[in-house]
Please model this.
Amino acid sequence: MLSTGALRAHLLAARLAGPVATSREESLRSYRLFAAGDPRALIGLDPEWTWAQRDLIELMADKCGVSADPRHVSGHDVIDPERTLTALDAFADRLAAAAQRSAPVLLGTGHPHRLLGFYAALADALSAAGCTVLTPAHGRCVDITTRFGLRTYNLDYVQGVALVREPGTSRPGCATGAHTHSPLPVRIALAAAAEAGGPLPELVVGDHGWVCGAGQLGFEAIGLADTDDPALFVGEAEGSVSVVVPLDDAVRSDYYRPLTRYVLNRACLSQ
Model:
């Protein structure tokens, strides 16, 4: 089993934690947008509390370890690896609980180029443990507003993990997909599951809108988030999201493999 010390060293070496690629400017912009109620930053969450930018800085300092000084406005953000490790343990515990009761699960990502392998390994392990890995609304069209205007995507599943891709970009089932923060894919997937008479997921695993969109609808949701994604951490603080792991969500895909091994071992799901 990968030790906590070895994983901590990997987090820092791969810049998953410690000084990360996400800039302070990017994060502060996201906090401003969230405080203003911009859907691009809310990504499916409807906050119960009022969050000013200063409140978000304090929250992210507590959850991630970024600077709590609002006068710190430039440079790279910093994630405390101890907070990442603690959250990974809680994340693994939720997976273990789902596996123990053979719960139906739904996995989805807005970062398919980076995180598909991480989630696919979880889907495979959960399936082997007796969980039903759900694939509702497969092939359904999803209209998402982007900075380039309204774009139509198709909802696809690769190794049990949902993602969206532009029509005609590649054959179904391949690993390419679009980067998105939108909660619309998970809303469409959950609605399709309900229309079909179930089962509905007892746990949703993912990032971005997959976590916030599911959590807002009352589903247990856990996921990964960078320092410029305050919505997930607000959801965790307010109780609509169960666990959020702070880390850089856009490093090389193979850098997440040690996290996969650690989580599966912790959850007693290693095959």
User: Anything to note?
Assistant: The first strand starts at residue 18 and ends at 23. The chain is about 40% helix and 20% strand.
